[in-house]
Design goal:
Elements: H1 19-30, H2 32-41, H3 63-88, H4 93-102, H5 106-113, H6 119-136
Helix pairs in contact: 1-6, 2-3, 3-4, 3-6
Length: about 140
């Protein structure tokens, strides 16, 4: 379920970003659950996901290094989203995080999680989140 926020707001809005940039960032955020799942799959033990070998100069593979690289890759992306949500609002950051990573609307957040703010406040913070994320991902 996606949010019903319109991708275009007035350029006079302090959190304005281009609609295509908004969609780019929105799809970046919607990958969060996949990254979390992939991050947990690389536990560094004996199992190794298919196609995850690193070839070194000696033509030898180093699966432990590849696991660490993959974990770092996913962790970095998850941290960007999490930290931006906290920077957006320290109290409502967890609700923003849930909304942007699961693609759920304010109405669903209100029903499932009892988000403690009004719709206008939430969507203002939602826009602020994407504006901050745009700054972070330049």
């Amino acid at each position: 379920m996606s949010t019903t926020i319109h991708p275009e707001v007035s350029e006079k809005n302090k959190y304005w970003i281009d609609k295509h940039r908004y969609y780019e960032l929105k799809h970046f955020c919607l990958q969060y659950p996949l990254w979390k799942k992939e991050y947990q799959a690389f536990d560094g033990y004996s199992k190794q996901p298919v196609g995850s070998e690193v070839v070194t100069n000696n033509n030898r593979s180093d699966p432990t290094a590849k696991c660490a690289e993959n974990q770092e890759y996913y962790l970095d992306r998850m941290k960007i989203i999490e930290q931006t949500a906290i920077k957006t609002d320290s109290i409502l950051g967890s609700y923003i995080l849930t909304g942007v990573t699961e693609g759920i609307s304010y109405n669903v957040l209100k029903l499932r999680y009892n988000v403690p703010c009004c719709r206008d406040t939430y969507y203002n913070l939602y826009r602020r989140f994407f504006w901050l994320l745009s700054q972070e991902r330049r």
